[in-house]
Design brief:
binds zinc ion; Enolase-like, domain 1; alpha/beta; 8-stranded mixed barrel; binds 2-phosphoglycolic acid; globular; 418 residues; 3-stranded antiparallel beta sheet; 2 domains
Length: 418
């Protein structure tokens, strides 16, 4: 047993320059810290992010109340507890808050404590973080889903689909996966320049050129894959995050153009797009309450990975509902959607039981914290979404995976793609 001696939270800043919370926990002569990320296209059912909405000093965005709660209430409850008992720590946090969506303490306050505790426990034991989750050996590295063109709420270019990603399916190792993505992204940059467009990047490091049609973005990605000497749909696959919550009005969707059309018409267009561009994965193709639309789509698109992000918000109850409804075959995992490490692991465990792929994800507002890289390996998750090969808060996670791969040495294996 190692007792928690001190807990100290502070306000730091995320990749968008917004305030966020970092918590540091001390035990023995060691300490570990964790930073909470923050989303832009958030689901209604996500756990609550506590911000000082009335404090105008940071335009309502500071997290000083959350920091204060960690330094007083939470610290008081957790001092003296065993740092290695993550379930107990998380249960105390959940009970201390006492609400379904963690509205009292804020999921950002709670998660920063939960992640810091997990990190410190590993540090005291002297084991790498990835070895302290669900998997005990036969670790598998995730395929990166690199978001190379940004649209939607992550850019201001008018692109309807939020994320155009590549997945290097041909890669036999994580370092090979990185190489493939590097080449495709470099070629994409040159293609964008040659069309006289801007190579500035969006919140997740993907290019955000001023193009407003999905097809134009997809044509660019296909051309970059081809120019790199790879086969689209075989060596490298195109994957999308539609984030359709942002594109819904009265049960109609404006995914494919700025005109709102019915679910059935949208599915028709999806099918066309999947065929033409050999799309292998679609995240949030419909809204978070439109369970029937999801079921209709999955029945008509076999072998495509359909991922629930805003639909499930890393929440076990919602995942169970999706499973019963046959809504998707995969789930996106974001720690701050639910608020503790233990609850996140419960969701991953259940997803594995029902045969869903698990894809560990960053948030559009992220930090230098690399917790999710270890989480992906420690749960043998199929894929990881951490943006493009640009902006250090994105690349930090990929770099950590390279370190893990090196440490695993000959034992390192890639996960299966689908
Ligand atoms: P968010 O976007 O972090 O802004 O919610 C990421 C996603 O939708 O996957
Ligand atoms: Zn998403």
């Amino acid at each position: 047993m190692s007792k928690i001696l001190k807990i100290r939270a502070r306000q730091v800043f995320d990749s968008r320059g917004n305030p966020t919370i970092e918590t540091e926990i001390y035990s023995k002569n060691l300490s570990a810290s964790a930073i909470c990320p923050s989303g832009a296209s958030t689901g209604t059912y996500e756990a609550f992010e506590k911000r000082d909405t009335k404090n105008k000093k940071y335009l309502g965005k500071s997290v000083l109340n959350a920091v204060n709660l960690v330094n007083t209430k939470i610290s008081k409850k957790l001092k003296g507890k065993n740092i290695h008992d993550q379930t107990r720590i998380d249960t105390i946090l959940i009970n201390l808050d006492g609400t379904r969506q963690k509205k009292n303490l804020g999921a950002n306050a709670i998660l920063s404590v939960s992640m810091a505790a997990k990190k410190l426990s590993a540090k005291i034991k002297g084991v790498p973080l990835y070895k302290t989750f669900l998997i005990k050996n036969n670790y598998k590295l995730p395929y990166p889903l690199m978001n190379i063109i940004n649209g939607g709420a992550h850019a201001n270019n008018g692109l309807r689909i939020q994320e155009f990603m590549i997945r290097p399916d041909k890669a036999k190792s994580f370092s090979e996966a990185m190489h493939i993505c590097f080449v495709v992204i470099s070629n994409l940059r040159n293609l964008i320049i040659s069309r006289g467009l801007s190579t500035s990047v969006g919140d997740e490091g993907g290019f955000a050129p001023m193009i407003s049609s999905n097809e134009k973005a997809l044509d660019l990605v296909v051309a970059a894959i081809k120019r790199s000497g790879f086969k689209n749909g075989k060596d490298v696959s195109i994957c999308l995050d539609v984030a359709a919550n942002e594109l819904i009005k009265m049960k109609k969707y404006s995914i494919h153009s700025n005109k709102f059309i019915s679910v059935d018409q949208s599915i028709k267009k999806y099918k066309k797009m999947i065929k033409k561009y050999k799309i292998k994965s679609i995240e949030d193709p419909f809204g978070e309450n439109d369970w029937i639309a999801w079921n209709k789509l999955i029945k008509q698109t076999n072998s495509v990975q359909i991922i629930g992000d805003d639909l499930y918000v890393t929440n076990l109850e919602r995942l169970k509902k999706g499973f019963l409804n046959n809504s998707s075959n995969s789930i996106l995992i974001k720690l701050n959607q639910i608020g503790t490490v233990s609850e996140t692991l419960e969701v991953i465990k259940f997803a594995k039981i029902i045969g869903y792929n698990t894809i560990i994800s960053h948030r559009s507002g992220d930090s230098e914290d690399t917790f999710i890289a270890d989480l992906a390996v420690g749960t043998n998750s199929n894929q990881i979404k951490s943006g493009s090969l640009a902006r250090s808060e994105r690349v930090a996670k990929y770099n950590q995976l390279l370190r893990i791969e090196e440490e695993l040495g000959k034992k390192a294996r890639m996960n299966k793609v689908n």
